[in-house]
Write a structure and sequence with these properties.
homodimer; 342 residues; alpha/beta; 434 Repressor (Amino-terminal Domain); Rossmann fold; 3 domains; 6-stranded parallel β-sheet; 5-stranded mixed β-sheet; 12 helices; DNA-binding
Chain lengths: 342, 342
DNA sequence: CTGAAAGCGCTTACAG
DNA sequence: CTGAAAGCGCTTACAG
């Protein structure tokens, strides 16, 4: 018999504790929960009994009584785990250790599967839901009638009355350009991904606005939209170098694109950052930190997003419902791919 | 008042359904649960009432009765989400839709935090636990006395009696070499990561054995151990090319290393795969698919690992406890970085 | 300060 | 075929 065969032994219950301590169940309950009306000596006896029996109160029974379970559902559509885990970690932090547990469900971008998970979670009486979208564009809200608070993170709900948390992509774009300007760059291009992504548009908007404020326009005359891939980063860079050989900085819309940019610059005989500074977006560690040189990148702060999502959810559960979309700031992480013009 | 303010309205209960259908609670229960002893017309009436009230049975109450909750805890230490999400997806598939929900907790490599999560999950009466390690080496088992079945995935337990599931790294190393041999390569080197990782040792062992079987030895005469980074992949490749300029294939111990290998080969004027074939390990999509050329890689099949972990856990919960470490096969994913010698 | 009783929402023998 | 009763493990008024 292995240790795990203990699965069959009944868990110790409050009445076991009460019996061992020689008190009633209600007294045992009060003693364990720190209620006032218990004699110190009695409380000690109960605590001791609980300790010896390794008593762990049944959270199901407690939840049934309280009408609150201390559980939350996190529904994601994250296929490679890049978004969900940081958001989960932020949420765990915000909920505080042990007070709340998180059900994580992956809907895989499928509305049916999502609906299915919502139903299962509601039958488990989660106190609330966090919905993490697959891409950072407005998404349809959960079907109406969900009886618990919902917070949308990363991808906002299309319903402006819902509580949504998104990254400030406009601000991130501005931040990237301002950093390049501070490095003394003046011929700055912007190569980015799929133009159907709101995030691509927003980052461009922020970038162009920051350039305008400095009295500049984009090198190459326009934003280079394409796909979120290294290959496009390379191709767009080659194109750019033909049209604007004197470019001295490139703002890439993602770290993947930035990786391609750096490679293509090397092949064209350009030094990074001496000749051309490069900045990425997402701060995806495995890509940004291992590039040659390591990439300066705009971090969208997913862990913080998760933390705030959890805070808003807790507030809503406690009846302090907010509403509307909240935009959270990005953060610049500087590495070797950007530096002042020597 | 937004829709989410519905949080305050009491959820509909079985007795609401019974009242609307004009039957007793017990009859309503039987009708909904498909028990035999209910007249068809009565059942229809109950089902209709449940439908109209959007009744969703309280899983807490059911779990309290059944002594089983249909929940499972997945404890991970995955900082970037690379392992947990595929494993979670496999587990979700294996558990079957809706029958089981998964609590995901991130211990972040901290034993205290892990212990903490275990306690919280046990108080929620999970039916079992899956523990996903931070790195694929044997790890200390959960503290004894956990009253539910535990399955260790990715990183095995140090206790050989525990149920553990690991990837066949020896087989993966063999597979990589056999593929290169099948491509007609004969001067094959192996550059890999941190030698304190059992996985690094295992992959090397498999590689060397496969070479021996073909009457060959490693190009360069030895395994090049280093770190799991692109930088090491580049450095090791330069070293190798000095010592063994005629190398015609490189087996890299990870995709990160393989990315560095490819870059360094290009810089040395070697074509991939014409002059040197390159194969990676992990099949980390973002790295492998975007390399130039895209990398052939050994996939450790995390989703399958999760699926099997869930199956073993379900079996143990049902009293069919297995024991010991089970080794799951890897899978070769071919891309353009390997090809037959022209 | 302590304990008997009611009840959270359900299921399952057990009578009728 | 239907329903009253007991009980899963706990907490919380309410008496004593």
């Amino acid at each position: 018999m292995s240790r795990t065969s203990g699965a069959s032994t009944r868990a110790t219950t409050l009445s076991d504790v009460a019996r061992l301590a020689g008190v009633s169940i209600s007294t045992a309950s009060k003693a364990l929960n720190g209620r006032e009306q218990v004699r110190a000596e009695t409380r000690a006896r109960v605590l001791d009994a609980a300790e010896r029996l390794a008593f762990s109160p049944n959270a199901l029974a407690q939840g049934l009584l309280a009408g609150r379970t201390g559980t939350v559902g996190l529904i994601t559509s994250d296929l490679d785990g890049r978004f969900s885990i940081p958001i989960l970690m932020g949420a765990e932090d915000a909920f505080g250790s042990g007070r709340t547990s998180v059900f994580l469900c992956d809907a895989r971008g499928d509305a049916i599967r999502e609906q299915h998970h919502v139903r299962a979670l509601l039958s488990r009486r989660v106190d609330g839901l966090i919905v993490v979208g697959a891409r950072p564009d407005p998404r349809p809200p959960l079907s109406p009638g969900v009886p618990v608070p919902v917070v949308y993170a990363y991808a906002p709900s299309q319903d402006p009355d819902d509580v949504s948390l998104v990254s400030d992509n406009v601000g991130g774009g501005r931040m990237a350009i301002e950093h390049l300007l501070a490095c003394g760059r003046r011929r700055i291009a912007h190569l980015t991904g799929d133009p159907t992504y709101g995030a691509a548009q927003d980052r461009s908007t922020g970038a162009i606005a920051a350039l305008e404020r400095a009295g500049l326009t984009l090198a190459g005359g326009t934003v280079y939209y394409g796909t979120w891939s290294e290959a496009w980063g390379r191709g767009a860079t080659r194109l750019l170098l033909q049209q604007e050989p004197e470019v001295d900085a490139i703002f890439a819309g993602s770290d993947q694109i930035a990786r391609g940019v750096v490679d293509a610059l090397h092949e064209a005989g350009k030094r990074v950052p001496e000749d051309v500074a490069v900045i990425g977006f997402d701060n995806w560690e495995v890509l940004a930190a291992n590039a040659r040189p390591p990439l300066t990148s705009v971090d969208i702060n997913l862990e913080h997003l998760g933390r705030v999502a959890a805070q808003r959810l807790v507030a809503a559960i406690d009846g302090h419902a907010a509403s509307g979309t909240e935009v959270l700031p990005c953060r610049l992480v500087t590495r070797a791919s950007t530096a002042p013009l020597g």
